[in-house]
Each structure stands twice: as structure tokens, then as C-alpha cells.
Amino acid sequence: MTVSQILSKFKQPAGQAEHTENSSPSTPSGSASLKEKNGEQYDDSPVAYLTWRSFILGLIASMGGFIFGYSTGQISGFETMGDFKLRFAQYNEATHTYYFSNVRSGLIVGLLSIGTMIGALIAAPLADRFGRKLSITLWCIIHIVGIIVQISTDTKWYQVAVGRLVAGLGVGALSSVVPMFQSESAPRHVRGAMVSAFQLFVALGIFIAYCINYGTESMQSTASWRITMGIGFVWPLILGIGIMFLPESPRFAYRLGRIDEARRTMTKLYGVPENHRLVAEELEDMKKKLEEERAAGQAAWYEIFTGPRMFYRTVLGIVLQSLQQLTGANFIFYYGNTIFTSTGLDNSYVTQMILGGVNFGVTIIGLYIVEHYGRRKSLIAGALWMFVCFMIFATVGHYSLDRNDPPKTPKAGTTLIVFTCFFIVGFATTWGPIVWAIVGELYPARYRATCMGIATASNWTWNFLISFFTPFISSAIDFQYGYVFAACSFTAALVVYFFVCETQGRTLEEVDTMYVEHVKPWKSSTWVAPAHLRRSEEEAQEAAA
């Protein structure tokens, strides 16, 4: 059974035709599926839920998320490895032990995020100038340079930090350009799942890094951390080379006047003939939006705030990406070892692997949720779930756990681990993957690269602030830090309810129209695009005739 046949078993997105195992959209259908409109004949045969070309595109592009996750997951294990501490930590003469000060730990962990913030901002103009594909390959090369800087030092902790800064340039740029490439290329009915696959691969990267750290942490040499770093060369090579064999984003190609190329790419990704109705409709929508943009003249940078409903959307993208960090997920992933060592666990690497496995496993469920329960409902439910989990985490950690002698309170330690897993379930199925999908859909093509760069940079800004200041804050208020993330999660639910429109099953051009027309977010799921109304009227007239 093929990939498209397997996935056709899932519930079909709203507004899409039903599919069967015997459908073969890649071959021209018979005359029964042809319909005439404005003197032209269009194929109206069923569209497969997912073609193998779309699957391969999503798989290769999502390696950008794997690089993100692997870079994030490896560092928390390094800081508790004996050889890494011996070479890069500070020596305490009183206790005759090596330790990382809050500043040194914060810089080694956090400079990756500074690099990613810068990379996300400068990725936009390069993506618009050189295209999505070439930009992705360029940033893979830069990430490799960062790994070389890190792995080539023996004793200089600041070289590790600078190497993570350089590697972060690539990670940040990829976290902006890859979801953009996916959202512009994916068929509308799987766009949410395909862009959310970026987060699935983030989770997979974190999990694989945890597993490799577990396998090397007992080594009493540089191999304990250099093996994990060295394997990091593989992932950007896969993405940087693999992306060159994929087609350019059809929307980017169309904007450059390569209309035939855009049409061919869409027909391959949808698995339909070139004269298919769905392809014609989307190309027509692209044409109208492009004509509107050209009529408005050359876009200045400030139009991301002054363009049609752009201030609203630019700020919304920044807020959503910021709140994704402020849910506290990376607090768990960056400092997981430290957190669970404080609960009395002898080998916190095992717990990290469990958390990483839970994160990856339930993110797969998130790909189903994003296309079958909508963006809004999923995000609101996920935010409230995480609010409850962090309230319990903070309360138990502060009031029940004996932080001086954790083994005395085993039930409290177990509760912390359980509700950390529950939190990860909520994050990985909702806010982890779905925010990337929404931000990829939020902006018109004219401003998409710049706005996505700014939104992604805000994500990485908070990523850095959390990673750098967490040691200081945790030292001051211990597990009460969880109340901060609980409050942010509750705020996130309110933001989604009042400001985020439902975009499930809509084209990017329809999403733009929905925001421009000031559709109320809580009514957006029932909104019908003007183009659909016109087509329904035309079909009714044809039927009456």
C-alpha cells in the first residue's frame, strides 16, 4: 500500500473531496471528470491526501527541525559529563570539584540562541533574493562551520560558546526559511501537518541527542562529547544536499514570473494533471494577490507594520512565537538533567531519554490533531493543559520536595517527573508544532520572509533569555519558577481565543483575505472565502441551466 493510500484512511479535511484507495490522480482522468468553465476544460478528479513527492519534500525539509532539536538536546548532557567539566568548567578548591558557574553555563547554553536570533533576521532578505532552496543549503554550510569551531578546542570554554553562536546562525535561519518553504509548497489540506513536521523533527533531534549522550557519558575522554558533536555534521549534509533535488517553492517561482514551473511543481505535489481545477484555482488566487501587490508598488520594510492588517499580524506572529518559548518547554529540555538530579535521581540521562521519547512520540499525534481538530481549539486546549501541569509542578517542587535531601520525598520526585511528562504531551501535540504552522500561514507573500524572520527571531530571543537566566532564577526561587510559565500558558490561551483565526484547510491567499476583512477569530471557522461563494454561485447557475 502506498503512502497516499495509507494516509487516505485518515479523516479528510473540511471542504476536500473524499478519496478512495483506487484513486490514481497522477494519471489523467477520463472525460467524466472534466468540467468546462469559461470555455476551458478542467479536470475535477479526486485529489490524493498525500503524494509520495509531497512526503519526500516534507521529510527532507524537516531535517531543518532535526538540526534545531539536536543542537538543543546535546548541550544539557554535556554539562554533567566528567571530561567536559574537567576541560571547560571551573575548579572549586574548597570542595575539589569542577562546576559551571551560572554565567559560564548560561553563555555556553545561551549563545546558540543569540546566533539563531541573528540568523532568523538576516535569513529573510537572502531567501527573497536567492530563493528558498539555495538559502537553506547556504545556512547548512554555516552550521557546519560552527560545529568545526566547537569540536576543534580542547580547553577553551569560550571557543565552545562562540562555536555554538556560529552554529546558531544556521539553526536560526533554517528555523525561518524551512517552515516558509514548507508552507509555500505544501498542498493546502496537508500544509498544517507538513509545517508541523518541522517540530516533529525538532523533537526527534532532541531525543537522538539524548540517546547518544547516554551512550557516551561514561567515557573518560573527549569522545564522551566529541562523538555527539561530530555526528552533528551528518544532519546539515543531508538537508543541504537533499534540498537541491527538490523543486523551488511554487509561490516563490510564480512571483518571479516562472508560472509554468509553479504549475508543474503544484501538479506533482498534488498528484494531478496540469489542467486540474484545484491547480487552476490556486494559480488564479496567486495571480490576483500578485496583481494587488504590484499595484501597491515596491514594498518598503515599514510596510510590515503599515500594510493591510499587517501591524496586527506582525505583532501576532511575534507574540505567538514568544509564547511558544514562554510555555517553559525549553526550560525542561535545556536543564532537564539539573532538574531531575535535584529530585534525587542517580542517572538523569535515563529520565532525559524518557522525556525525549515522550516528546517525539506524542508530536506524531500533533500532526493528526493540527489537520483534524483545527488550530484554535488545539492551541487553547494545549495552553490550559500546560497551565495545570506547571501549577502542579511548581507547587509540589516548592512545598513537598525536600531539596536538601530529595530521597526523603520520593513521591514528590515521582510527581514532578510524571507532570513533566504530562506537560510535554500538551506541548508536543499543540504549541510545539502548531505555532510553526500558523506563523507560516499568517502573512501575504509580499511580506512573508521578513515577517517570519522577525517572528522566529522573537522565539530565539526568549529562548536565549530563558536559557541564560534560568540558573539565576532557579537559584533564587527554585521550583516557583514554574508559576511564571503557568501564567504565560494561561495568557497564551486568551491570545489565541481573541486574536488567532482558524486557517485549517484554507489556501495562503484565503488566509490573507480573512485577516484583511477583519473576520472575528471566534467566528473564523465558519467563514467562507469570497472566491468560494462565487464558485458556488457559478456552479448553481450551471446546474440550473
UniProtKB/TrEMBL annotation:
Record-linked InterPro entries: MFS_dom (IPR020846), MFS_sugar_transport-like (IPR005828), MFS_Sugar_Transporters (IPR050360), MFS_trans_sf (IPR036259), Sugar/inositol_transpt (IPR003663), Sugar_transporter_CS (IPR005829)
Mode of membrane association: Multi-pass membrane protein
Pfam families linked to this entry: Sugar_tr
Database matches in Gene3D superfamilies: MFS general substrate transporter like domains
Transmembrane segments: 50-71, 107-127, 134-151, 157-181, 193-215, 227-246, 315-337, 349-370, 382-401, 413-439, 460-477, 483-500
Residue stretches making up the Major facilitator superfamily (MFS) profile domain: 57-504
Keywords assigned: Membrane, Transmembrane, Transmembrane helix, Transport
Coiled coil location: none
Composition skew (Low complexity), residue ranges: 23-33
Single annotated GO MF: carbohydrate:proton symporter activity
Compartmental location: Membrane
Location of the region described as Disordered in the Swiss-Prot/TrEMBL record: 11-39
Record's GO cellular component terms: membrane
KW Transmembrane (keyword) present: yes
Family affiliation: Belongs to the major facilitator superfamily. Sugar transporter (TC 2.A.1.1) family.
Protein name: MFS monosaccharide transporter
Organism of derivation: Rasamsonia emersonii (strain ATCC 16479 / CBS 393.64 / IMI 116815)
